[in-house]
Amino acid sequence: YLGVMPAYSAADDALTTKLVTFYEHLKDSSVPSHQATVLLFDPSNGTLKAVLDGSVITAKRTAAVSAIATKLFMPAFAEVLCILGAGVQAYSHYDIFTELFTFKEVRIWNRTKEKAVKFANSVSGPVRVCSSAQEAVTGADVIVTVTMATTPILFGDWVKPGAHINAVGASRPDWRELDDELMKNSILFVDSRDAALTESGDVILSGAEIFAELGEVLKGTKPALPEKTTVFKSLGMAVEDTVAAKFVYDAWSAGN
Predict the structure, then answer these.
(1) Which strands, in side-by-side order, build the sheet including 187-190?
(2) Following CA atoms 106, 108, 114, 115 in sequence, which dihedral angle do they give, to the nearest 10 degrees?
(3) Average pLDDT of 146-171?
(4) Do 75 and 140 belong to one domain?
(5) How many CB atoms within 10 Å of residue 140?
(6) Computed over its alpha carbons, how large is the radius of gyration of the chain?
(7) What is the residue range of 200's domain?
(8) Residue 212, C-beta contacts closer than 8 angstroms, at least 6 positions apart
(9) Which of 10, 120, 128, 236 has a Cα-to-Cα distance from 93 of 20 to 30 A?
(10) Do 24 and 66 sit in the same domain of this protein?
(11) In which band, very low, low, confident or very high, does the pLDDT at 245 lie, cut at 50, 70 and 90?
(12) How confident is the model at residue 32 (pLDDT cuts 50, 70, 90)?
């Protein structure tokens, strides 16, 4: 389907609209499941200033938000990172997580093992390819789910107490990545309450209670609780595209 995501940021003096398509990824196809374009306008008069590659912006800003959540919620002395999924978001999350955090081990699992092997051979550091999601998750301190799953692929009884999960896939109200046990027994953070309660199958179908939005933690009005098992349900917000697009445009304008 086609999504339209308009937003305005007064702080950044930026007005954008992202057009994004979502299609089921076909086996052996080189066409990604998500494709996007961001239009950046001058908010003072509506002039179109730039057309940007929305797929790159989406991948980078989504991983950046997950990294912010992870910095707040992950347990102290986290050593093992697990990524479930081997698509575009897996690469962007790997890049920023290994740049910002120090993990002793990185693991990956994908429904199609060949793609997990390709991922491990493509990135800059060592990655352990796991034969099952359970193998990848067991003992992991930080887990990132970036799949196109429609039913749960991550179960609460696999997850180490105190682990942090960034749940990025399952962006439709009838899709799931996480099971009820994990959703209900974790402290649940979201990027947007309104979006989570209308778009996230993990939240809607599990009936899990939302503890806080990420912004509330950043503002200091809600605690991060890194000693608990935490889930950050990421759906993406249009303003993230706006800020990222303006940042890219300003860097390009300055010759950087």
Answers:
(1) 128-129, 105-109, 80-84, 142-145, 164-167, 230-233, 187-190, 210-213
(2) -100
(3) 97
(4) yes
(5) 25
(6) 18
(7) 59-237
(8) 189, 190, 222
(9) 10
(10) no
(11) very high
(12) confident
Tokens 């503002």 correspond to what residue?
A: 219
Q: Which residues contact 112 (CB under 8 A, 6 or more apart)?
A: 27, 86
| More reliable by pLDDT, 1 or 227 | 227
pTM, to two decimals: 0.93
Computed over every residue of the chain, the mean pLDDT equals: 96
Q: Residue 117 to residues 6, 28, 126, 140: CA-CA distances in angstroms? A: 37, 15, 11, 19
pLDDT (tens digit, 9 = 90+) per residue, 109-122?
999 999 999 999 99
One-character DSSP codes across 185-197:
TSEEEES-HHHHH
Amino acid identity at 133: A
Closest CA to 116 of 101, 102, 103, 133: 133
